[in-house]
Amino acid sequence: MSSPTNEKAEKAHAETGDYVDSEAHREKSDAVMTAAEIDEQFGITPEDHKRIIRHVDRRLVLTVGAMYCVSLMDRTNLGAANIAGMSLDLQLAADPSTDRYSIISLVFFTTYIVFQPPSTVLVRKIGPRLHLAVITILWGSCMIGMGFVKNWTAMAGLRILLGILEAGFFPSCVYLLSTWYTRYEVGKRNSVFYMVGCVASAFAGILAYGIMQMRGLAGLNGWRWIFIIEGILTVLLGIAGYWLLVDFPDSMRQTWAFLGERERDWICARVHADRGDVKAQPFSMKKYLGAGMDPKIWAYAMIFFNTTTVTYALAYFLPLILTGNMGFTVAEAQCLIAPPYALAGIVMYGTSWVGDKYHIRGPIILFNMLLVIIGLPIMGFHPNAAVRYFGVFLTAAGANSNVPAAMSYQANNIRGQWKRAFCSATFVAFGGIGGIAGSLVFRAIDYPSYKPGLYACIATTLLNMVIVGVLTLEHWRLNRAADRGERELESEEDGFQPGFRYTY
């Protein structure tokens, strides 16, 4: 038997198609439907529940994960190309006063950061299928062009263009995933999304080594073929992505029988009951930018900045560290990149599973940062190369596992579609700034020890621990105030959801 509140919600949905009941906004004492009530209302059995979520996982998480794989490969394959002959052909070391490799690494992030905020608005307007597929095809074409550049300035120019095209991808994926899952389902999905991309792209070193053997074919050096072949793969995946990707669950643009209307309505109802923001409010620049007044948004963004400083530093410079600092050959270095990222995938999924099961986020970040703070000194300062390589395992596992952990932390504690859109954009933009920092911390003049870069990564890791500690105290303070009835953790823009509490 449906409660009066449920009947009102059903009537409002029938009349407006919106899950937010205007009367419920005024009467804060109304109860939110439970998961069992929602299942009963839509006639969803436990078997149906598992089947629908598995179907969404396959079509959404695996597709965006595969596309993110080529995104990571395409932005971080400079390290493999550099030791495969690009440095010599483009004369990256010709001018000792200019670190040309760092320049072509970091210019990507200038446009990557600037063009992210409009992306989360654009993806809502035109839909993720078209948006993500088109930009993937375009940046794949840009990658192919990199295989034919004649000088380092042309490479830098194409990297700037690549930043524009890739800017919309990651924040749109984070936003899209958050609209399909409840708060304590999204952790594992974020980890699988990032894990598929991270682990698969880690094997790009082995792929790059294989492609390098094409050296001389059509008169092109091996590093050029790395860009050409990987660019072609990106274009093909972008084309496939248009047919495989899904739109937002509340979208009317669904053009194929991915889910029935009843199933989509059930998805929307359960997400709304969990978070209260399944439907986007009409766009308002004031509301969108006004989200920036919440200091917690910038704290989440700083966590991501500190995390990506380490992950990008590893991505761009690990091949150089393995060959220079640890003495491995080019072939060995290309192959030794993959195992630490395989461990990262295991840690990533395991910690996300624990976070979803026990409804915790901050402790997961602290655990990941502990791995990094142990791994970095071993990687940088132990006299034995094999032990230093073990330090790479801990550092890569902790830093990369922290990416989905940080994504889930902010996703669980942000409500309101446009606030969520703004948060996704600033969150990933700060990740891009971390990419700039990661491109600069390991300087050519510090080769082969790179000690200043190691100190910088240690500092960002410690700062993450401090920020999580401060946020935990603030969340505890606000939750306690809500428990005492002194305040409600909601607003008209966020949607009516009495009983919401921040996740520690």
UniProtKB/TrEMBL annotation:
InterPro entries: MFS, MFS_dom, MFS_trans_sf. The chain crosses the membrane at residues 60-81, 101-123, 130-148, 160-180, 192-211, 223-245, 297-322, 328-350, 362-381, 387-409, 421-441, 453-473. Residues 1-26 are annotated as: Disordered. The keyword Secreted does not apply. It comes from the Eukaryota. It is found in: Membrane. The keyword Translocase does not apply. This is General substrate transporter. It comes from Apodospora peruviana.
